[in-house]
Amino acid sequence: MSETQLPPPRRRINLNWLGLVPFALFVGLFLIAPTMKIVIGAFQRADGSFTFENIAGLFTPSIIASYWISIKISVASSAIGCLVGFLMASAMVLGGLPNTIRSPLMTFSGVASNFAGVPLAFAFLATLGPLGLVTMFLKTQFGINLRAMGFNILSFWGLTITYLFFQIPLMILIITPALDGLKREWREAASCLGATGTQYWRMVALPILFPTILGTFALLFANAFGAVATAIALTGSSLNIVPIMLFAQIRGDVLGNPHLGYAMAFGMILVTGIANVIYIWLRMRSERWLK
């Protein structure tokens, strides 16, 4: 007697994927579409024809100088941000500070790491500008003239210090989980073998944390290199960095070339993209150690 054949099960539609539709639309409209417009525009003339002239224009001395200044500011703010953020996170996680400090510090870091643009520029101008609160306080109370000492908020170090406001908190947010991942057994084993605290950090902890630190440096570099609104709002045209030159080209002044601006933006995408790939790769390596 033949067996009764059951009808094939009906395939059910997984409606959970509908929750990703708003995110997918947002990414497509505000990330992928503008990026593709920049990439295509970098290889077009004003009439829409294909050309490499815009890419070749990136190698003019003024544009190369602007990229170099942006790279130096990004490296300086990333290095200082990594160092200060690492010391603060280490003091919080491993330094025996009260647990009540951790929650406010992490909350502030989450807010400050996303605080940029015009509000941040105004805050630093009101604090360290020519007539800023700290500038005038030091001058009137202690006779310290920051301007006479060569400090100018509208300069290389002025912009670097401003970037530290969001670079240091970002470092704290990323390095804290890595510090939490350092197992107590590793410290105890090093102590049992006669290692000092310095030897433990030099031979055990820092080698484990190094991929995370280096990866975070790459992320902070990309974060600073791509910061546009803060640089424009703070320095205007007084500092010749890539975002400001790009803004002048895209705006279409008399000497502006929007498609050269697209090429400059394309170059920024390449630089930040490489930095983010390095960060992701190093983050994956560090996570294998800390599991």
Automatic annotation (TrEMBL):
Transmembrane parts of this sequence: 20-43, 49-69, 76-97, 117-138, 150-179, 199-221, 228-248, 260-282
Pfam short name (any one): BPD_transp_1
Keywords associated with the record: Cell membrane, Membrane, Transmembrane, Transmembrane helix, Transport
Membrane topology: Multi-pass membrane protein
Cross-referenced PROSITE patterns: ABC_TM1
Lineage: superkingdom: Bacteria
UniProt-annotated location(s): Cell membrane
Residue ranges of every copy of the ABC transmembrane type-1 domain listed in the record: 67-281
Similarity annotation: Belongs to the binding-protein-dependent transport system permease family. CysTW subfamily.
Protein name as catalogued: ABC transporter permease subunit
The species this protein was found in: Rhodobacter flavimaris
